[in-house]
Amino acid sequence: MPLDVILLVLFGALLHATWNAIVKAGSDKSLDAALISAGGAVSALPFLAFLPLPHSASWPFIGVSAILQFAYFQLVAAAYRAGDIGLVYPLMRGCAPLLIAATSGFILKEDLSAGALAGTMTICAGVLTLALEARRGSSRAVLLSLANACVIASYTYVDGVGARLSGNAISYTLWMSLLPPVLLFSWAASQRGAFAVAHHVRRNWWRGLIGGAGSIASYGLALWAMTKAPVATVAALRETAILFALVISITVFKEKASVWRYVAGVVIAIGGLVLKLA
Question: Where is this protein chiefly located (predicted)?
C-alpha cells in the first residue's frame, strides 16, 4: 500500500475517532448520531455542484448503502445501551475487517498477499484485545455488536464497489451521505415526536455540523483509498481509529487505561507497519 494512501487513511481514522467522541460526550446518543449523519449531509451539499454525478451503475449501491447506514446507527445506539464501550466498540470495529478479509477473495476476487493478510490480522487482533478490558457486558451486547460488525462489513463492500463504479469516489461519498439522515430523523420523529427531536436539534446542531464534517471526510478518504488498494487492507487499516480513541479517552475523558489498552495499541501499530512493508 503506498505511503500517501496509508497516511490519508490514518487521518481519516483520526476524524472517525473524533466524531465518535462527540457522540459519546452527548446526552442523547441516538439523536446525536442522527445529528452527525445530518451534519455530514449539510457539509456535502456545497460541493455537489462542482463534482460530476456518479455513474448510473453506482446509484443502486448508494440506495443500499443508505439503508445499511441507517441500520448501523440504530445498532450502535442499541449496543451502547446494552454494554460497556470497552466491549462493544472493539467487537464492532474489530470483527468487521476480519469478516472482510475472510470473504473478499470470494466476493471481490481480491487476493491479499501474505504480508497484507498478516498485517490485516494483526490489526484485528489488536482491536479485539481491547475487549479483554471490558468490566461488564451481556450476551445481548455481544450479539448486537456482532450484528453491527456484519452491517459494517456489508456497507464496506457495497460502498467499496459503488465507489469504483461511480467514476469519482468523492462524488459517490457526498451523494451517499444525503439519504441516511432522512431515514434516521424520520424514525426518531415517529418514535419520540417531532417536537422532542426539534428541541434537541436546536440545542446541539453545532455538534452535528462539526462531527458530520469529520464523519464524511473520514469515510470519503476510506472510499478513495479503496479505489487504490484492496478493500480488506483499507478496512483493517481504518480500524487504527481505536488508537486515536484511546488517546482521546485518556486525555479528554480522563478515563483510566488498563494494560490491555496499551498492549492493543502496540499490536495495532505493528499491524500498520506490516501493511506498509507488505
Answer: membrane
